[in-house]
Amino acid sequence: MPVKADIRAQYQLRASIIKGLAHPSRLLIVDELARGERCVCELTALVGADISTVSKHLSVLRKAGIVQDEKRGLQVFYRLRVPCVLRFVDCIEAVIKEGERAGEE
After folding, report:
1. Range of the domain at 45
2. Beta-carbon contacts of residue 20 (< 8 Å; ≥ 6 apart)
């Protein structure tokens, strides 16, 4: 029995959110935003890339619904829109640790 269109759409949406996280720089940004909001300039220094590259990463995260931004004067500040995304990151860490333990056996 084929998957219904609405269920397929839900899986597509889930995949787009996971794709939004699927880059080391974006994971680093999410980890930093877990500590609180940051301006683009702070994130640029953290990632070690030019502002254009960091802005593109932030745009991907924003389109995925993971972060939100707020312009204050000339600066743009970002924060996690849904802090529960950190549970997903914690789950990834658990998979890594479990894989390391399995490798020790």
Report:
1. 5-104
2. 26, 60, 61, 63, 64, 65, 66
